[in-house]
Each structure stands twice: as structure tokens, then as C-alpha cells.
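Notebook entry, cofactor series.
This is the third protein in the set we're modelling with a bound small molecule. For this one the ligand is zinc ion. I'm keeping the input format identical across the series so the outputs can be compared line by line later. Sequence and SMILES below, as received.
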Amino acid sequence: MIIWGTRSVNRTINRGDFHCPQCKDRRPYRERRSRTFLHVYWIPMFPLSGRSEHVWCERCKSMFQREVLMLDPRAQQAAAQTAFTKAMITASAAMAAADGNVLDAEVERAWGYVDALGGGADITVDKIRAFAGLIAAGRADPAAELEAVADMIPPHAKELIIQIACTIAAADGEADPAEGQMLRLIGASLDMSEAHVFGVMASMRQG
Ligand SMILES: [Zn+2]
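Returned structure with ligand:
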């Protein structure tokens, strides 16, 4: 009698810590690649399936799809903060550049927000001025920069970005039509409806 059957062969391809949905805590994991083989006398003969990868919690032994690594709340929070900072800098520089005239008052106000809201030590007034200059010259595309991070920013943080943009527009003391247009562009690039953007602006005027 020939003894045969199927058997899956696992190989660890990656290790680390992750947020295990089963343990609801930080745990060590192994990312494993497995493949099912036909075996004859327990010797793998040929593969019956393609490779598949999964994540295995070393504590509770649960198996998850690889996407579980992206559900890490801590990692997600850090990514959201980075996305927000990037969008805030982009929106601020874009507003300072909107009327084609990058004024010190606008750049300084922009930097004040970036600094207060945790923009990081590597962001300086000069960097924001240079970025605004690139946008004014058409050599940087604020819409593309904002679209790239829009998905990672929560709604209330998007409203905060619109509020910051409004106060930068007001820094030179006059409401320029180009600034209104830029505000709409910023809102649209952040996936906000025009009504939402106007609502945020209206609530600021009342406040
Ligand atoms: Zn677990």
C-alpha cells in the first residue's frame, strides 16, 4: 500500500510585532509562506497549490491574512499624523502662493501652525517659503500632493486644514478670488464636497 496525501509546507519569511486582533494586544508574529504538496510517504512530490502568505500570532496561534499588519492602530495613527502634517504644509504653502505673491506674513502664519501642530523640527519658515515659491511658479502640484494623503486624514483634521488655509488667506488682509479658488482646490483634493468646505468657512466667520 502506498501512503500518500497532501501536506502543507510552511516557511517563515518575516517576523515582527503586530497588533493581534484575537489577543487584542501587541504580539510577536511570523509571516509564513505556505504551499500544499502532494506527498508520498511524507515526501513532498509536487505542489498542488500556489504559494500563499499568512500571518501567524505566536501567542494565540491564530492565522490572519497579511493585511492584518496594516490594521495596527499605532502604525495607523503615526501614518495619519504624517499625512496630516504633509497636507497641512501643502495647504499652507498653496494658500501663501495662491495670489502669486508669497508674502512673509502668509509664510510666517503658515509656519506658526505647522510648528504648533507638530510639523517636526525639520520644517522651517524657509522651507515653507521655498515650497510656496515652487507652487506659485507652477513647479509643484498641491492638488496631487493632497490627493496622495487624503485617504489617511480623518474628517475633523481635514476641516482643521481648511480653517488653517482660511486664516492664511486672511493674513494679507484681503480676500483674493485666487485664494477662494485655491481653497476650493484644497477641499476637492482632500475629497471634501464644496458644501463641506463652505460650511467650514461659514462656521469660522461666525466664530
Ligand atoms: Zn494572538
